[in-house]
Write a structure and sequence with these properties.
EC number: 2.7.4.16
CATH architecture of the largest domain: Alpha-Beta Complex
Keywords: ATP-binding, Kinase, Magnesium, Metal-binding, Nucleotide-binding, Thiamine biosynthesis, Transferase
Catalytic activity: thiamine phosphate + ATP = thiamine diphosphate + ADP
CATH topology of the largest domain: Phosphoribosyl-aminoimidazole Synthetase, Chain A, domain 2
Distance between the termini: 38 Å
GO biological process, one term: thiamine diphosphate biosynthetic process
Largest sheet: 6 strands, mixed
Pathway: Cofactor biosynthesis; thiamine diphosphate biosynthesis; thiamine diphosphate from thiamine phosphate: step 1/1
Strand content: 15-25%
Helix content: 25-40%
Structural class: alpha+beta
Oligomer: single chain
Radius of gyration: 21 Å
Length: 339
């Protein structure tokens, strides 16, 4: 490693950087932290992994985190990023009504990245996956100017039909499991340099959690449609509404989301913002939004937050989502290209 590489990243001389290690040496630091269970027949080390598929069908999803686009190393540790990358993919599997089973992870790493940051990343994956019996079974390494974490997740439907976005029907109950707005509050505090105001909200942004077990429970309870809320409640409810050809009418968030409102009130007061903007437009909480037939018993931790209405054939530009029967006044949430 050249002196210029180490000069760009001031660390203790004894602390190795990625550029100090061979690929095999780096993998030797990663592999011990990755969980492996009975579903994995062949794990890391061969050209490909072999995992069981008892259902005969495999749910597959992929997502990517790009440094300075989705996370900043100044704000998040490697462990935070590993947990976040795992959870956002596991939530997509759960939203189909499936049980997450395995991940493969591809990494792009700059040479001046401390090796201990990469080891922390692997630890984060292990912490997010092991409690749910999810194995990390392989991946790839490459070099580049920024950290990129690309994950592909697999899941098992266990004999159930997948729950799609397109199944909501007029009269269905709209329900949500998980947090709303907490991650957005944490991001706003970090951007304002006020992380100490609400450390729990900041932690939710850095390394969110998701009610993964709620996905299969919703499927078993007869959920008609479901998706992961990654880009904000309004935007993702709109996706469900368009796929199903219906209108989603959310209840007044001051009532339906009262616990979430209380959770972010201190941060909102300190920043002088309306917390409803976080609840309705904030993303990356990775809760689950689902619709259920009106006579279905909602499984915990789902709570009712609205209803599905028929789309009027006479309305030229009817909104996909209403809030208490009105057009929402806040931005709908995150778009990866429009912002």
């Amino acid at each position: 490693m050249t002196d210029s590489v180490r000069a760009r990243h001031p660390v203790a001389p004894s602390a190795p950087l990625v550029a100090d290690l061979s690929e095999e040496q780096l993998l030797a630091r990663i592999f011990p932290h990755l969980p492996r269970g009975p579903r994995t027949l062949v794990g890391p080390g061969d050209d490909a992994a072999v995992v069981t598929a008892p259902d005969g069908r495999v749910v597959v999803t992929t997502d990517v985190l790009v440094e300075d686009r989705h996370f900043r190393r100044a704000w998040s540790s490697g462990r935070d990023v590993g947990r976040r990358a795992a959870v956002q993919n596991l939530a997509d599997v759960a939203s189909m009504g499936a049980v997450p089973t395995s991940l493969v992870v591809a990494l792009v790493l700059p040479g001046d990245l401390p090796a201990e940051w990469v080891e922390g990343l692997a630890q984060g994956f292990g912490e997010a996956c092991a409690p749910h019996g999810v194995d990390v079974v392989g991946g790839d390494l490459s070099g580049g100017p920024l950290v990129v974490v690309a994950v592909t997740a697999h899941g098992d439907l266990e004999g159930r039909d997948p729950v799609l976005r397109s199944g909501a029907r007029p009269g269905d109950v709209v329900a949500h499991a998980g947090a709303c707005g907490t991650s957005a509050a944490g991001l706003a505090l970090l951007e304002a340099g006020l992380a100490d105001v609400d450390p729990a909200a900041v932690a939710s942004f850095r390394a969110p959690t998701s009610p993964l077990a709620a996905g299969p429970l919703a499927a078993a309870a007869g959920a008609s449609a479901m998706l992961d809320v990654s880009d904000g409640l309004l935007r993702d409810a709109g996706r469900l509404a368009r796929a199903s050809g219906v209108v989603v009418d959310l209840d007044d968030p001051r009532v339906a989301l009262a616990p979430d409102l209380a959770r972010v009130r201190t941060a909102a007061q300190r920043l002088g913002v309306d917390p409803q903007a976080w609840l309705l437009g904030g993303g990356e909480d990775h809760g689950l939004l689902a619709t259920f037939p009106p006579d279905a018993a909602l499984p915990a931790p789902f709570r009712r937050i609205g209803r599905v209405r028929a789309r009027s054939p006479l309305a030229d530009a009817e909104p996909d989502v209403l809030v208490a029967g009105e057009v929402p006044a806040v931005r709908p949430g995150w778009d990866h290209f429009a912002g």
